[in-house]
Amino acid sequence: MLDFFPSRTLTLYLAxxxxxxxxxxxxxxxxxxxxxxxxxxxGKILQVPGNGQAEIWTYATLRAPQLIARFLPYSVLLxxxxxxxxxxxNSEVIAMKAAGLSAHQVxxxxxxxxxxxxxxxxxxxxxVVTRATATLKAWDANEFRKVPRDSGVRTNVYLTDGTxxxxxxxxxxxxxxxxxxxxxxxxxxxxxxxxxxxxAQRAVYAAPGWRLENATGFDVAGARSxxxxxxxxxxxxxxxxxxxxxxxxxxxxxxxxRRSIADFDAAGRRTAEFKAKWWHKLAGPLSSVLMPxxxxxxxxxxxxxxxxxxxxxxxxALGFAYFVVDNAALAMGNFGGYPPLLAAWAPFVLxxxxxxxxxxRTEE
Length: 364
Known about the structure:
The protein has 364 residues and is an alpha+beta fold. It has ten helices and six strands, in the order H-H-H-H-E-E-E-E-E-E-H-H-H-H-H-H. Helix content is 59%, strand content 16%.
């Protein structure tokens, strides 16, 4: 098996080149995108009395892990193109092939490095990204005001009571101590249209139902609003349903999401979206392993033609096509168009075969 790799010196040389370029591209992408994100978010943060530079730094530290997780595979792709183009320009690929190395042996150090990066990305997502995502979503849902210290903060919760809907921007606490903020109650008419809308900044469990404090009602048919005071709605909605209705796959770790899926299955609820996201927590980080294979056309196949730029564009096109197909398949899996396992892994397998086919054909 070790014969699949070139010599130890060459393996370390290629791996070092690759790693340096991955992190250089990643830092550049994250810094640029974070600056653009701050331009649109700083105004919202500073609108809240008491917020200042410390809150902006807090936002940056919470947003950066999300950007790192999302754009690490792109960084591996771009680093692959840069590395292979550089090796090709300096005739190092020709020297390695003249020494008897196959295309797969030349790529082996890059593939191994990408695998290590993918495993590290999975661990980073589990330990850092999920927690940062949960905290940032709770803070954003609270309009960047101070969020109560509660490890169980959930955001963007939607619950049904018959045809009526109870929506909350954030939920804290558990059991009878559950509290909602940014609450909206939609009462539907028999025709299915929204007949009345009630809004409140806060709602607590009233056993049964949920007490909207200082609620404001809006009658859709009469186009008028009025102050209603404390109003109880959603008497069939229990705190247990709130827990099930507030699962955010992006804010839960691999094992937490697995338990949530089991809870939904036990309750007879639809789990296609959660299962697709669960499988993608594995497939997403491992997409880094595909990038050296898809970008290999930049080093092999058309070397005699001298069209280095065209080869680099082809490698980038293959890589970005994977991300497009992966997002489309995941979206199809979310609403049940594809089975969850197929939605998460089909793009990975498909582009692994495409990359291998392109590599073999161009080497012939």
